[in-house]
Amino acid sequence: MKHLRGRALWFTGQPDGEHHPDVHFLDDAVITLDGMHIHSVLPFSSFIAAGGTPQQVEDLRPAIIMPGFVDTHIHYPQMDIIGSYGTQLLEWLDNYAFPAEQRYADPEYAHAQARGFLERLFEAGTTTALTFTTVHPHSTDALFQAATSCNARIIAGKVLMNRNAPPGLTDPDDAADTNRELLERWHGQGRLRYAITPRFAITCDDQQLRRAGELLAEHPGVYLHSHIAEHPDEIAATLALFPQADNYADVYDRFGLLTDHSIFAHGIHLSDPELQRFASSGSKVSFCPSSNLFLGSGLLDLARLAAFGVELGVGSDVGGGTGFSMLATLADGYKVNQLRNHNWHPMQAFYAITRGGARSLHLEDKIGTLAAGMEADLVVLDPARGSMLAQRVAQAQTLTEELFAYLFLGADHGVAATYVAGQPQYQRKAA
Ligand code: GUN
Ligand code: ZN
To answer: φ and ψ at 216, to 5 degrees?
Structure first.
């Protein structure tokens, strides 16, 4: 057993402030890890009263120990195009995303990149990711193999696209058989899960979307991961390709793709009837503020989604998004909300990248909180010595102020360590 002493913070529901019953904060706690699970979370005094000794603990104070972050939308093959200049969505796909994904035709390259991707996630404090791969089946194998070697919770699937994409990236048919093989090989292996991943309606014909919906219906627990209503040009192109559909959401709905295991990135421009359908089907939105600002796609209205009862996770959307850090992603989310005249409380924001993200993936019984029996995915937040973050945190009068400082200054100097299934997979080097 391993005993970590620090300030423990987790959420059991959506809090609207610091003093809310769903905010759990222990100023001096011992989190005991037993293999890949949390054995107990106790106040230090209770740990001692139960026979523990100060010598047994690894003292991380004053670090805050939280559940590892959950990124509900990212593209692992797009790491190397983060911050590519000058375009909006459709042109950006042609100029940057597709060429980057074409490089994954080489299996060796895919394997090397997959390992590097996981390292970047852990460095950022992210322990669970729902990610796109590429159309190449071996890019999905490479990622799942890398995740197996460190027991990481990765949800992924082969990208489906059989039209409106470059030749090297276009499935020769509906790719349903390949997709099924991959699903059967990986879904439920340890902590891995499969996501059926039609890129978006523009790049998938009717037959491909239909077969995707059939496969989804046959496999309860498998996810559907796609994009929707991100950019006005994309919406116009989609409606032109599917003139019979009532709206963008209806394109997917007709093929059985709106379910409670469906996660759609962006959703910025969804209409009221589409949001109603999202709510009634249990489909989730992944809020990707950094990408939405970078690609000029628009400002998601979180209050409107909440009013319709649509649940949400947060996605970095690398490489449309500008970095792996979920802290920096929340900072952009805060700014988007400011422009929408909506105050996003830091507690709500941190909820969204822990328990909220876990809920949107139906994983809240396994990850997203600190409690006995949960999987031991943890992030240790502590400002690097001498950093601007350390200087700013020293001024914080409340936990809210401290957390808020992490959003804006924590990306580079906030994460001291990341535990994945009980093992330290990232540790910041001493300065
Ligand atoms: N829509 C379809 N593909 C993509 C992608 O790779 N990134 C983003 N941001 N939107 C998309
Ligand atoms: Zn995306």
So the answer is: -60, -45
